[in-house]
Write a structure and sequence with these properties.
It contains no helices and 24 strands. By secondary structure, it is mainly β.
Length: about 350
């Protein structure tokens, strides 16, 4: 007595396209004319909370002073052409720090926003005071509007003894940063149908499926014979899936065991072959569907203790995409006292079809 169940499995693959924000900073070594007696600012960094073109966001700039002279002002110039102080600065299109506010300061403190001559310029002012040796200062400005186009841009940094960023600079330096033209994240999820079968599928993984041969042993008119096949299915198909059964009832040469084309209870001593997908009490065998999926058993195969076999029937289905669902097909066989002797064999095929 043989039941051979054929299934298939396909795996999902995901392709993910990620956008990456790039923030560049120059750490030194610019080739430009240095101001007399001034030193280059070290450990310069710039961070943008949002690097998209045209966004209003927070800028955080840090640098380490080198000169020991008093500092009364700091100037930041945002340029489209280069990071070199003392050269002509081309304002980035769309950039504006006119509405910026000073959110926080550390290192050299006591600054407030001074009067700037252009929207691409920020001036910090305070009463001139000495600079601690190698102090690192950080300033955060909110409400800065990024350039309106993507690309690389530059910041020129200078500190002054004066309170209005005039005269010779005390320290100087430059930075580069990148504005992105808008990021997109795309995910492609291919259609998939996972379906497999076995005598047992212990976990929700087709790799755990074992067996495709069910041996019912010797039949007797005084008892019912039972066996099982398990089916595991899942899909992301929008309109779900169906599982159908194909094959023949058990046969031995020209002799057959009657297939139950209409649901019936198990009757000892009567020629019967059928199955359902439920836990049963008569005879005690089978199991209700398991898993997080919600696919339903079809009529005729959904009533405990009633069995049916009609080739071509849909035995379970879902009308939408469905998570893992494990069905247990519970077979029942009865024979009459007049059943001819022989080896009775059936080959059943379960087919799952997804609707995308």
């Amino acid at each position: 007595m043989t039941v051979l169940v054929i299934g298939f499995r396909s795996a999902i693959q995901k392709g993910v396209l990620l956008g990456i924000l790039l923030l560049l900073s120059a750490a030194g070594g610019f080739s430009y004319v240095r101001h007399a007696d001034s030193l280059q600012l070290q450990n310069r960094t710039l961070k943008l909370a949002d690097s998209r073109a045209g966004s209003s966001t927070l800028y955080s700039v840090s640098f380490q002073h080198q000169a020991a002279g008093p500092v009364g002002s700091v100037r930041l110039q945002f340029c489209a052409n280069d990071p070199f102080p003392g050269q002509a600065c081309v304002a980035p299109t769309g950039f504006s720090a006119s509405g910026a506010s000073l959110q926080s300061q550390s290192g050299l403190v006591g600054f407030s926003l001074g009067a700037s001559l252009a929207p691409n310029e920020v001036i910090l002012t305070r009463t001139p005071a000495a600079v601690p040796v190698a102090v690192t200062s950080t300033y955060e400005f909110n409400g800065v509007i990024n350039p309106s186009s993507s690309g690389s841009f530059f910041v020129r940094l200078e500190s002054f003894t004066s309170t209005d960023a005039t005269g010779a600079s005390v320290d100087y330096g430059g930075l580069a940063f990148r504005i992105n033209g808008g990021l997109s994240v795309n995910v492609t999820v291919p259609p998939f149908l996972l379906f497999c079968s076995g005598n047992q599928i212990p976990t929700y993984d087709c790799a755990s499926a074992v067996g495709n041969y069910v041996d019912f042993g010797d039949f007797s008119p005084t008892r019912s014979s039972t066996g099982q096949t398990q089916l595991l299915v899942a899909t992301n198909a929008e309109f779900g899936y169906t599982i159908a059964v194909g094959g023949t009832t058990l046969t031995s040469g020209v002799n057959t065991i009657t297939g139950l084309s209409v649901p019936d209870v198990s009757r000892k001593g009567v020629s019967q072959f059928g199955f359902n997908l439920r836990a049963n009490g008569t005879p005690p065998a089978g199991q209700d569907p398991q898993g997080t999926g919600v696919a339903a058993i079809s009529a005729g195969y959904d009533t405990p203790n009633f069995y049916k076999f009609q080739p071509g029937d849909v035995i379970a289905s879902s009308s939408t995409s469905d998570a893992y669902r494990r069905f247990t097909v519970n077979y029942v066989i009865n024979v009459s006292p007049a059943q001819p002797a022989g080896i009775y064999v059936s080959t059943l095929t379960y087919v799952a079809v997804a609707s995308f």
